[in-house]
Amino acid sequence: MSNPSLLILPGDGIGPEVMAEVRRVIDWFGDKRGLKFDVSEDLVGGSAYDAHGTPLTDETMAKAQEVDAVLLGAVGGPKYDVLDFSVKPERGLLRLRKEMDLYANLRPAQCFDALADFSSLKKDVVAGLDIVIVRELTSGIYFGEPRGIIEEGNERVGINTQRYTESEIDRVARSAFELAMRRGKKLCSMEKANVMESGILWREVVTEVGKEYPEVELSHMYADAGAMQLCRWPKQFDVIVTDNLFGDLLSDAAAMLTGSLGMLPSASLGAPMANGRPKALYEPVHGSAPDIAGQGKANPIACILSFAMALRYSFDKGDEATRLEQAIENVLAKGYRTADLLGEEGKQPVSTSEMGTAILEALDESL
Ligand code: IPM
Ligand code: MG
């Protein structure tokens, strides 16, 4: 049988340097655990625009459709701010999500013990936090029509449309319930049914799907109240399911509870392919951080944890994923910190590649 295939899209900014560390980890699993992958690499975002005049070529799109999983670094940067909207780096990422139909975006927010002091919230509020936000990723206001900027009378009007079909809500709700079944069996759905019809429908469909999962304790919250509760006492949640835009906001807020965006991975999953695996793209929640790009300061952990999620969700290697997560936990416990995890303490941070090396050593110790 041929090896499982991985398409790596490092992207822009710190993307390439964090991805370089992921490649070392992938090689480690090949050498030490016999887990070989057929890895290919390509361009996305601003780097693709520089080379081809588009943030994602049709060839790269076609490759992404064929592989078992895509691993993406980050896209964007100030250099590309002047570009027309249609060729901005972000469009490459949004095209991948849309055309691969990756409707369920899993964004865990997990607080590593060694970093509990680092959160802007009190330690007892975040210590041991382990929640997952399931964000709908291919519909809603990000893609709804009509959209655009039109002339009306003597001024311009910016238009975007929030739009959800029942089937779109149904399928992401199912992903969230399935995940809740494998975790704490608690699901909170967030919308704004008090002001939006799409929210009313969202609540109805989620409730309906919930009847098929009687073991899961389902609750509903308005998304603004949800944001407040996330900051007040996040440990009340296990799995949260929400739409594309609310999910974008709530996942950034949840991420910050854990201390650093540099720690958080994500998985974007679609329908199962012929081989039974879901179409999948894995990426860190953080962006391209152009201010520190190319300086060896970036934290590679979010991207490495994204590969751990790939091991778990695309390759059925939950044990190996846990091995990798544990190695990272150990490295943090030993005190290794990249600059984003240090605050103003004046301690000397480790570089991106030193963090990678420490993780490889911890992996060796796990054997
Ligand atoms: C995210 C990002 C993207 C989004 C951008 C880069 C298009 O903020 O993945 O959360 O808004 O979805
Ligand atoms: Mg975002």
TrEMBL record:
One of its GO terms (biological process) is L-leucine biosynthetic process. The record marks Y142, K192 as: Important for catalysis. Its EC number is 1.1.1.85. Binds 1 Mg(2+) or Mn(2+) ion per subunit. Keywords: Amino-acid biosynthesis, Branched-chain amino acid biosynthesis, Cytoplasm, Leucine biosynthesis, Magnesium, Manganese, Metal-binding, NAD, Oxidoreductase. Pathway: Amino-acid biosynthesis; L-leucine biosynthesis; L-leucine from 3-methyl-2-oxobutanoate: step 3/4. It catalyses: (2R,3S)-3-isopropylmalate + NAD(+) = 4-methyl-2-oxopentanoate + CO2 + NADH. Residues 5-359 form the Isopropylmalate dehydrogenase-like domain. NAD(+) binds at residues 77-90, 287-299. Mg(2+) binds at D224, D248, D252. One of its GO terms (molecular function) is 3-isopropylmalate dehydrogenase activity. Substrate binds at R97, R107, R135, D224. The keyword rRNA processing does not apply. Homodimer. This is 3-isopropylmalate dehydrogenase.
